[in-house]
Design goal:
Blueprint: H1 2-51, H2 68-78, H3 91-108, H4 110-113, H5 121-143, H6 146-174, H7 180-192, H8 198-202, H9 204-222
């Protein structure tokens, strides 16, 4: 039993020695030195911290930043009129939108407009116009049936786009010299039959025309009559 125990200890020491040699050969003595210094520093710092008394600060002596509530209080103190246009079913949302519009006019319209004339009729009318635009947007958004759009239309559109992209990758392996963008729109035209976005995506002029058309449609639906 003693002989077996001695052999086990010898094998353990050999394995430990080989491990130490491999570790030193891989990391070097510098790593071992810095590791030892780090461990000793941690132990010394831990012992020093334990010897120092814990200082308890009274809660009332600490200063906390009020942040956004303080800024909001300052803005409210300046005076923001309550909206007289019903924008949504929730009064809190109406107040927030009214404040946003008021701050936009105050920061971007009033500085240069007051240098022209002291009359405030234009900012007031602009304020009402923006509130009506917000109201029309909220009304249009509330009329949309989002369930089929988010569960059927949008996922099917994304799946079709991914399918076209994967088909383009397969065709790219057959024709490696062809442009990937050209292959993508070729596959899209073959897959969708009647839809191809190549002109809109590859031409800046067509892209601007398309965005201009979308902007006109958006303004048509949200701008008050």
């Amino acid at each position: 039993t003693a002989l077996r125990y001695g052999l086990d200890m010898l094998a353990f020491n050999v394995i430990l020695g080989v491990t130490a040699v491999c570790f030193l050969m891989h990391h070097g003595f510098t790593f071992v030195f810095y590791s030892a210094v780090a461990i000793l520093s941690f132990i010394a710092g831990f012992l020093l911290v334990r010897e120092k008394p814990v200082i308890h600060f009274p809660e009332r002596g600490l200063l906390y930043s009020r942040g956004i509530p303080k800024v909001t209080a300052i803005m409210d103190a300046e005076g923001v009129s309550k909206p007289n246009i019903r924008l949504s079913p929730h009064e809190e949302l109406d107040n927030v939108l009214n404040q946003i519009v008021s701050f936009i006019i105050r920061d971007y319209i009033t500085p240069w407009y007051n240098s022209l004339t002291p009359d405030d009729s234009f900012p007031m009318e602009l304020h009402k116009l923006l509130l009506r635009v917000f109201g029309n947007v909220i009304k249009r958004v509330s009329e949309v049936d989002w369930v089929p759009f988010l569960t059927e239309i949008l996922p099917s559109f994304m799946a079709a786009h991914i399918r076209v992209y994967r088909n383009m990758l397969e065709r790219k392996m057959v024709y490696p010299d062809k442009d990937s963008v050209k292959l993508f729109f070729d596959v899209e035209a073959e897959t969708e039959k009647t839809v191809c976005h190549e002109e809109v995506c590859c031409s800046q002029d067509r892209e601007k025309d398309h965005l201009r058309l979308l902007s006109d449609m958006f303004l048509f639906f949200v701008t008050p009559a």
